[in-house]
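Hi there,

I know you've been waiting on this one. I reran it after we fixed the sequence typo, so this is the corrected version. Both the input and the resulting structure follow.
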Amino acid sequence: MGRAAAEAGAEKLREAIAARGSATIILATGASQFTMLERLVESDVDWSRVDCFHLDEYVGIDDQHPASFRRYLRERFVERVAAATGGRGVRSFEYLDGTASDPQAECGRLAAIIGRHTVDVAFVGIGENGHLAFNDPPADFRTTDPYLVVELDEACRRQQMGEGWFPTLSDVPARAISMSCREILRSKSIVVTVPDDRKSAAVACAVEGPVSPECPASILQEHPDCRLFLDEAAASKLSAPHG
């Protein structure tokens, strides 16, 4: 699953680099992305021509915290790409700063930067509550703001604790900066990687249910080039095979 997802995305990046000399990606984090990112680093991509953004970050978490998404992507992607390419690494990585004194201003800063890019591939997952990035239900499907300050619901926060990122529920931040659903849909291609039975109900809702803010990932049905990579457990509640 992770290998197939990585190669699908890498192929889109090679096409973009061949067509215009550069590419831009969005990366997700969390346990669902471990294998995909490992394989993506190993892909035959000229990373020195790739600009990178990430989906979300907790408000109030610094980049040394074990649950920091900046730390996650620095250690699991940026540093590994640099090691694999003899120090060249990616062309740029724009990190979301969860400790910014004004989170709304941080949203504006990143919005101005990503607005100058065409995103070729968004690598994303689906949360146990159906969230897309940190857009928990009911998600805002109307806003076109690229980044939002959002409140995290209890189901989302329990997932973060359950995956081992935080010792207790009270340790999980209540707010985050998240890329909006509409901004994710601006990407030319979307690669969705979802493992585990605990995600199976959300997958069925996203794939076979109506497009609804109550299942934020269902908005992916509107994208013309969205590929979903599941293991058997995550696909177990789908009513029929999907290509």
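Quick highlight: Residues 2-20 form the longest helix (19 residues).

Best,
R. S.
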